[in-house]
Amino acid sequence: MVAEEIAQQVFAQCGESGAASEIARYVAIPGNEPVRWLLPANGEAIESVLGSWTPYRTRSRMAWAVVRAASRMGELGELPGAAMIETECAHGVDWRALGWRWDGTPIAAIYVGTPGPRRKAVVHLVEGTTGRCRAVVKVPLNDGARNASLHEAAVLAELEEERRESVPRLLYVDRARGVVTQTFVDGRPGSRKWDAEHSRALRSLLLSGETTSLRAHAERWQLEGIGLRLPESVEIAMEEIAADKPVPACWQHGDFAPWNIRRMADGRLALLDWEEARRGGLPLCDAFHFLHVQDFLFGRRPQLHTGDVCEAAHSIRISAGAAGKLEMAYLVGAYVTCIRRGNEERARFIEKTMARFRRRAA
């Protein structure tokens, strides 16, 4: 999908069909994909958005610093690989109808997700008078993204009802289109290094007085795996974890990773993107995801991380042995999810990681 088509689809989802239109000029900024950002051509007042986005690879950080500098100088269109586009957008999009509560008409800067079954665009709405990003509108680009956004909206509503802090607040939900508006969470991008604040954030997601069991989750993964070709190592692991005792239940974020975390001004961590979240999840699985997904994405060798989360486990009264079982459970669940979604590369990496349990026991 070319940049013009993406922009047209995004604005069509935000506006009303049949509305009068006008031409808007944007600059398509490439990343790992041909279009990663669609930014206003004049670069006006979007530094708050660009500053909240920090790539984790050195080369990407350097390239992003150039994008930010070009934006401040109004020279985005001069960047290598950038493309100036003109797109029809719904004239006078009623941003207030989509949850905008601040002064004036917002400036829209658009992040375009990676192509896949859950591809979406995230429209950052910036207040022109202050230059502050106040809200984000998540616009699905396919049915999978629509379902994921509506699931996240339901989760955020539950979290607000439970008065959970440090999460985005819902401003608007269009159930027919799957368009969801949330408050923007201001803060520095999360660190790749696990620290005490990460442990504290996960403890805050425990469900007081509630428990779950590895058996219940193993049975769910077995059902999800029906019809799939699961290797013997995964089948054996399911049997091993299915006989374990109850453990504290929690809100499981599901994609607890540095890019979905913001460190706020008071030092606390806020969690974004709750599309994978589940109530009544297993403790420590978010911690294991934080570590294992980085092993995969940043070219590290497969390894086990029970020792890295021992302090977090101790703080919620989970023994080292139980933590090891929870790590195995995380890997089983992640493997089944990868196979169901066709992510065979990560599934192979997880299988190699699980093999380390067998070598350790030998």
What does this 3D model show about the protein?
This protein is α+β, with helices and mostly antiparallel strands and 362 residues long. It folds into two domains: 3-185, Phosphorylase Kinase, domain 1, CATH 3.30.200.20; 189-361, Aminoglycoside phosphotransferase (APH), C-terminal lobe (Aminoglycoside 3'-phosphotransferase, Chain: A, domain 2, Alpha-Beta Complex). 38% of the residues lie in helices and 22% in strands. The protein contains eleven helices and 14 strands. It has helices at residues 3-14, 47-51, 58-72, 143-161, 196-203, 214-224, 232-241, 285-297, 310-315, 320-340, 344-361, and strands at 21-29, 37-40, 83-90, 107-112, 120-126, 133-140, 170-174, 179-183, 188-189, 206-213, 246-252, 261-263, 269-271, 278-281. The strands form three sheets. Strands 3-1-2-4-5-6-8-7 form an eight-stranded antiparallel beta sheet, sandwiched between helices. It has a three-stranded antiparallel beta sheet with strand order 9-12-13, with helices on one face. Helix 6 (214-224) packs parallel to helix 10, helix 8 (285-297) crosses helix 10 (320-340) and helix 10 runs antiparallel to helix 11. The radius of gyration is 22 Å and the shape is globular. 39% of the residues are buried. The mean pLDDT is 91.
